[in-house]
Design brief:
about 150 residues, alpha+beta, two-stranded antiparallel ribbon, single chain, three-stranded antiparallel beta sheet, 5 strands, globular
């Protein structure tokens, strides 16, 4: 379907002045993946076609979080940065001006509001140099289930 969208954009004649961004908000839908803080639950696709700005066929291992998406789109549109947002623009990664972005990112899962498929609240820190710390809180989960019965 993404290919069809790209072809339609090409046929419209607007591909040259349009940024196309494709992403997901969670990892693969496999057991122990989606809705977890493990790599399979956190790594998501981010494909960008931005003619004249993003080098064709380029790839990046920059550590980016989805909280960086809004500041990036504001930056690309020429808007002013909003100081109270958690993320920051990764426009320079997209244009190839830098190969790094964040030194670390945080992730978390909670029992609320998805208690029926995520039974272990977790917290996670991932560093740009490859470390991934995960803290699971199964005791909190058991207590919460007892209190909500």
């Amino acid at each position: 379907m993404l290919g069809e969208v790209m072809q339609a954009l090409d046929r419209s004649g607007q591909a040259g002045n349009t940024m196309l961004m494709f992403l997901a908000d969670q990892g693969a839908q496999f057991p122990g993946a989606k809705w977890t803080v493990y790599d399979q639950g956190l790594r998501v696709p981010l494909l960008v076609r931005w003619p004249g700005q993003t080098p064709k066929g380029s790839r990046s291992d920059a550590l980016i979080s989805l909280v960086d998406l809004t500041p990036t789109l504001i930056d690309i549109a020429g808007g002013q940065a909003i100081s109270k947002l958690d993320g920051r623009s990764f426009k320079n990664v997209l244009t190839g001006k830098t190969t790094t972005h964040s030194p670390y990112i945080f992730a978390e899962t909670s029992m609320e509001p998805h208690y029926w498929y995520n039974y272990t609240p977790s917290r996670s820190v991932i560093t740009a140099d490859g470390y991934h710390y995960i803290r699971n809180y199964p005791q909190a989960c058991v207590l919460l289930r007892i209190l909500t019965r």
